[in-house]
Protein 1
Amino acid sequence: MQYLHDTFKENKTLIKLNLEENPGSYCTVVSAAIQMYNDKTITKMDLHGKSIGGITMKVLTDALINNETIIDLDLSKNKIGIIGTKYLSDVLQTNQTLIKLDLSQNKIGDIGIKDLAGALKDNKVLTILELAYNKIRNNGAQYLNDALKENKTLIKLNLEGNPGSCCTTVSAAIQIRNDKVLTTLNLSQNQIDNNGMQYLYDVFKENKTLIQLNLEENPGSYCTTMSAAIQIRNNKALVTLDLSNNAIEDIGAQQLFNSLETNKTITELNLQENNISDIGIRYLADMLRNNETITSIDLSKNKIKDIGAKYLGDALQNNKTLTKLILDSYYYDDDHGDKKTNIISDIGAEFLANALQNNRTLTTLSLQSHQIGDIGAQHFAVALQNNKVTNFLSHLILTNLDCYTLDTQRIEPLQQQSIDQTTRSFEDER
């Protein structure tokens, strides 16, 4: 077959050479090469499952290097491996025709991907590259990501079925960066962890079209906030954001609140049960100083304490938008006994009450099941007396459970009152 190949390289008339069902390993590639050399009308070549090996790929790539018609080449389910990928990579550096290339199931591995990535860095025409099931690990995914950062043409990079945990996000990053009409992307149930999420950060900063990004049921703690951040920035119709029970924690909260700082559409924010502590609340307070749209925030069942109450109190001093703030606490049972979520005492109540003396917009503040006693209630009473705004704070909910008796395993409510009752007592005193 080598003799035939050398002879046919100079032939300019033979278009089709049928060598099917012959035992020679070169038969398939020699036939394909002849067609590449002489058929000036062929645009698509299907060579999937032909047992093409690494060495025999040299015959094919010699023909492909000068071909100006083939735009779609399918080499899936072969055995081109590292050597064959090297030959193909050399061609891709200069090829100006090939638009779609399928190399799925070829045992390329990270070493082969390194060569291919180097070629893709300079390629300006390839738009679809299939690399599914090629034993690509995170090193290979990194090679592709680094090489394709400046690439503007590749729209689809399929890395399905590869063991690298970052393969999915590298593939998604390419699509998000270059597909200018992409509005919806589903990456749910892909085992995306926080390491994988790093490949998406930079492309999200520049993207203006993606409205819905589904990252549900992935182990990465940043997935929820990343998905939300995309919606916050790009979805101009979004007015309500419900992220309850997502365990975004403080780092996720920081990302979320940074995105919300300049948002002009979202009015309601539900962050119940997210393990947000005083650290995360500090980021929220910073956001509230600049955001002019959000009117309702639910922070029930988090980990907010008196310091967090201080941060919120400072922010409420000058906020002119927020009308409803829910900070309810909750008792729950686990293997270590009963625990409580938000815990605000009389100290935290004083911080919030001080803010209410100057705040002119808040109409509902809910602090159910905290450790606020008579002293804390008095702070709120003074604040309401000093604030002269009509209809100010129509609902102040102070249903407190501040006495927990471990030996009897019961909770005794010491005080329950509504603002309606409080207001009437204030009027009587006046």
Note: Confidence is low (pLDDT under 50) at residues 401-430.
Protein 2
Amino acid sequence: KSYGEVRNRTQQSAIFSYSAEKHVHCSGSSEKKCVLHQGTKKSPRKPPKMTSPAAIKREYYQTDTAVTVTVLLKNATEKNYAVAFAPDKVELTADGIEPIVLNLWAAINVERSTHKAYPSKVEIKLAKLEGHRWEDLEKKVTEVAVPLPPKKTHHDWDKISKDIEKAEAEEKPEGEAAVQDLFRKIYADANEDTKKAMMKSFYESGGTVLSTNWQEVGAKPVEVKPPDGCEFKKWD
């Protein structure tokens, strides 16, 4: 073989060796011509979607000494499940699910608590630290409302006082209160002689006579005039 033929074969071998990771297309002619095609890049795989703990059903029952929790998780052993105990909580992890964390109602004995996997579930047995009945499996988490500072209120005391006076003025008294209110208005608007007549007649008659005529009242004592059906008597 000539040097040229050997050189050509060597070059072709190098091309095919380089094309191991690429697509090679060669024509059928005596002098094979090879065309290299760059392979398409594959997009990176997205991580598998994790199952939420809320989507995994769980049940529990209790005795005086233990609480048994059943988590409906199929093929837990194949999913590399694990259970971690703490005095006040328990956590279950497995492939393909987000961790299931239970904040327990009461404290447990970590050393005596156990777990076991079955084909369709995981059974977790929590040994009670104290033999009293749990009201629920988990504690109720309540948000504590932060008290807001009291709002500063500004009172217009002058306006409030005027409003009270206006309400009192608009309020219409009834019965004896209406009579007393009428007498107060008459006395307030009267002249000096009228005021003296009212005071003298009311005092001397024991509250049975109220006169505004000073000429009549001022000339003589005012007699007691009790209402009809009543009799006036002096007390010794």
Note: The radius of gyration is 54 Å.
